[in-house]
Specification:
Blueprint lengths: L6 E6 L1 H6 E10 L4 H8 L8 H11 L4 E11 L2 E11 L2 H26 L2
Antiparallel strand pairs: 1-3, 2-4, 3-4
Length: about 120
C-alpha cells in the first residue's frame, strides 16, 4: 500500500495564537498504537482536561515561557504535533491585537471599494 503524501490537519489550537506570543515553533513526531492512529485518522483527537493542562503548565514554565500545542496532523503518513515555545499575553495585548486586525480589515475593505469605484 502506498504511503499518504502531504499534510492532513487533525486538530488545530486556534486560540493559542490569540492567548500567547509565539516565540519559536517545533515539529515533533508521535509514537502511537493502532487504535490511537485509527482515532486520529477518523478526525477524533481528545485533549487533556483543563486541570491536567494547568498542572503541566505550572511544571513547565521557565522564565515566563510555556510549551503550547498548535496543531496535530499527519505528514507523509506519520503523526506529528506542532509545538510552540510561547509567552502568555496580557488582556490589553489581546485587545490591542484584535483592534489592529479590525483596523487592517476595514482598510482593506475601503481600498477594495475604491478600486471598484463605489
Amino acid at each position: 500500500m502506498a504511503r499518504e503524501r502531504g499534510r492532513k490537519v487533525v486538530a488545530q489550537n486556534r486560540k493559542a495564537r490569540h492567548d500567547y506570543h509565539i516565540e519559536d515553533t517545533f515539529e515533533a513526531g508521535l509514537v502511537l498504537t493502532g487504535t490511537e492512529v485509527k482515532s486520529l485518522r477518523a478526525g477524533r483527537a481528545s485533549l487533556m482536561h483543563k486541570g491536567e493542562i494547568s498542572r503541566l503548565i505550572g511544571k513547565t514554565q521557565e522564565r515566563g515561557l510555556t510549551l503550547v500545542p498548535l496543531s496535530l496532523y499527519f505528514k507523509d503518513g506519520y503523526a506529528k504535533v506542532e509545538l510552540a515555545l510561547a509567552r502568555g499575553k496580557k488582556t490589553y495585548d489581546k485587545r490591542h491585537a484584535l483592534a489592529e486586525r479590525q483596523a487592517k480589515r476595514e482598510a482593506e475593505r475601503a481600498m477594495s471599494r475604491g478600486r471598484r469605484g463605489t
